[in-house]
Amino acid sequence: MTAHVLAPQDLIRKAVIEVAQLQENELLIVIEAVEFLKKQRARPNREAAKEIVARAKARAAETRDLPRKELIKKFSDTLDAIRAEAIKNGIAIDGELESD
Q1: Number of domains into which the chain is organized
Q2: Which of 42, 43, 51, 71 has the fewest CB atoms within 10 Å distance of its CB?
Q3: What is the mean pLDDT of the chain?
Q4: Mean pLDDT of the 68-79 span
Q5: Range of 46's domain?
Q6: 69 pLDDT band (50/70/90 cuts)?
Q7: Helix/strand/coil (H, E, C) string of the chain?
Q8: Is the residue at 100 inside a domain?
């Protein structure tokens, strides 16, 4: 079942269930994303872009002292998780990535 076929009430129910199962640190990310979406509605894209850059810099500062290997591992794990979710949702093809 995808979000496109869910009735609004079912969509809200599904979102609440999914969010309720997240860990605390993941909940903070969801709250940040919701706040970002609210602000994005109220401001032009230029302001949203400035905020994204500022948040990216803040996140980079948080990981500045981590060893390079650990950063690469975190990045790789994140990419793998995103790809797995995309495959699960049918918006990516399972298989090896090819380069140019």
Answers
A1: 1
A2: 42
A3: 82
A4: 88
A5: 8-66
A6: very high
A7: CCCCCCCHHHHHHHHHHHHHCCCHHHHHHHHHHHHHHHHHHHCCHHHHHHHHHHHHHHHHHHCCCCCHHHHHHHHHHHHHHHHHHHHHCCCCCCCCCCCC
A8: no
